[in-house]
Amino acid sequence: MRSTQKTLALWFFLVIMAVFLFQAYESKHTKMIGDFNYSKFTEAVKANEVATVTFRQDSSEIVGEMKPEFDKKYSGTHFSIIGNVQDEGFKFLEQHGITPNYERADNGGFFQSLIVNWLPLILIVAMFLFIMRQIQAGGGKAMSFGKSRARLLTEHKNRVTFKEVAGVDEAKEDLQEIVSFLKDPKKYTKLGGRIPKGVLLVGSPGTGKTLLARAVAGEAGVPFFTISGSDFVEMFVGVGASRVRDLFEQGKKNAPCLIFIDEIDAVGRHRGAGMGGGHDEREQTLNQLLVEMDGFESSEGVIMIAATNRPDVLDPALLRPGRFDRRVIVNKPDLKGREQILGVHTRKTPLGPDVDVSKIARGTPGFSGADLENLVNEAALVAARTDKKYLEAEDFEKAKDKVTMGAERRSMVISDEDKKVTAYHEAGHTLVNRKLSGLDPIHKVTIIPRGMALGVTQTLPEKESVSLSKTTAENMIVFLFGGRAAEEVVFKDITTGAGNDIERATSIARRMVCEWGMSKLGPLAFEKSGSEPFLGMQYGHSGHKEYSESKAEEIDAEVSKIINTGYAQAVQILTDHKTALESLALALLEYETIDGHEVDMLINGAAVSEIEKYRNNRRESFNAIAAAREKKDGNDPVGNSGPVTV
Ligand code: ADP
Ligand code: ZN
């Protein structure tokens, strides 16, 4: 590109120079005679002083040259006058031995005319060529729109295997087959089998779909191409389709290999549907994808894996046999899965002796693999901030709170009065929880404000429950009212702090009546469960009631009854155990946070001061274990041998 510019500049310079030189030459050799006219011309002809005469018809000019010897006389050699010559004029000239020339146009020099007439055009053409060349040269960019953006990750770089993917055993089993297809396609085609071309991984974000796909490639030892569905969708028409073509070309060149399309719903949405009308460009891209998928044979060893969390919006054509006809569901990990995933991600982090991975797993229901990885990372950051050698249980605790509830708001100014109310409120929840059966035990209680909440009472599920008994549902309502009840019992006044508790309690009560058939109205479903409308479908159905007005009144009455009974029970429990309530609240005001064990100590009658002792003992035994471990393992403190209860 640079050299083109230089060459052009050089040519430009040369042309300009030529013009100047020519003009200089001409002006030197054509010295015009000043003050010349027709009569002087005839005089000169008569005197035989003129050498040549030329008629310029177009400009009605007579130009000519004097004989050199008269140079001095006229102080010039050339002349030019306006005039036309008739027949007599010719005769007159011929009489004096001059044969006049004719010229149709000013031919004052080939170069001059060339420059005057053609230079602008030449320059324009040159500029045009120059711009064209620049576009082409600079535009690897401009011309490579249609190239796919697929990134190739080969097995040498960051190879991932199934070992690194934990807690999704079913999905791994399903994909095992794909691994063996990729390893040895012939084994299957020999018997006339058709190797699947595409696998659709379905699961919510962060469940490890990308990781699984990479692991498949890693296990089979084949190249891994990854591209996101949104990479196909561009502003420019036709780009998506040509990217698809390029992707498949690349794939075939590198066969056997695995092509992974993340977020396929970006291109694979139902054609002709969707909000805001059709999207031609996207449809073209999808069509191209379908065509390409039909066009290649997986016996060539190219297998596609696509990921989505919205299989319901995909175009059915994409899921037809011969395309993405296999579906592998990647669920959010269950308790055991979470424990395994935490195991994978804590492999390289030194864990303190008080870290119980299974307990962390219990406290993180609903976390995806990515969430858990993030949790470990946050914990490592928290530990590093205080220059720790290990990640301790409290670091995980802080990390979890930060991830789930937002950062602590220690700077928030809270009056002593508010603090006291919060302490009793949380103590109320806690005490009610401990006095009822079927509820998850208390994990910790805190009055440090966090996110929207002034205080938090956290429970820790012991197992993953899939169903709920009527007694447990009722007890949950009592537990939720524990906070409000404590305010009433202690202060004889109530605050707004229970808003969220009331909302949740009401929701449970309503579902007991309307969904679960847990009231005297019997096992009737009054509301469809799980009919959450999502964009584009089932719109405008909410608010539709499938029961009569009188039934509605009965429902409301039942809900109220459950709520009122629950609240009364909470008040009763707290009135009966007011001493324990006091001591829990005082401990909270003193320490701000207390854990489940400390809660039990206090309820069993321990004094607030005994907590200090308990904490010191725990710290000491922690240090002892850590020291012993360090001694044993030398300098490597990463002895993640399993949980140690202290
Ligand atoms: P998705 O593609 O489903 O959105 P990713 O595969 O990108 O999720 O997961 C993001 C990260 O979360 C992974 O790089 C991995 O570190 C972690 N992760 C997710 N699921 C698992 C799992 N089952 N086992 C181990 N790590 C996981
Ligand atoms: Zn509350």
UniProtKB/TrEMBL annotation:
Alphabetic keyword roster: ATP-binding, Cell membrane, Hydrolase, Membrane, Metal-binding, Metalloprotease, Nucleotide-binding, Protease, Transmembrane, Transmembrane helix, Zinc
Cofactor mode of binding and number, as noted: Binds 1 zinc ion per subunit.
Membrane topology, record value: Multi-pass membrane protein
List of residues binding Zn(2+): H425, H429, D501
Top-level taxon of origin: Bacteria
Active site (UniProt): E426
Binding site for ATP: G203, S204, P205, G206, T207, G208, K209, T210
GO MF annotations, alphabetized: metallopeptidase activity
Transmembrane segments: 110-131
Record Gene3D superfamilies: 1.10.8.60, 3.30.720.210, P-loop containing nucleotide triphosphate hydrolases, Peptidase M41
Stretches assigned to the AAA+ ATPase domain: 195-334
EC number assigned by the record: 3.4.24.-
Required cofactor(s): Zn(2+)
Class in the EC hierarchy, top level: hydrolase
Keyword Nucleotide-binding: yes
Function, as annotated: Acts as a processive, ATP-dependent zinc metallopeptidase for both cytoplasmic and membrane proteins. Plays a role in the quality control of integral membrane proteins.
Assembly: Homohexamer.
Family of this protein: Belongs to the AAA ATPase family.
Protein name per its UniProtKB record: ATP-dependent zinc metalloprotease FtsH
Organism listed in the record: Bdellovibrio svalbardensis
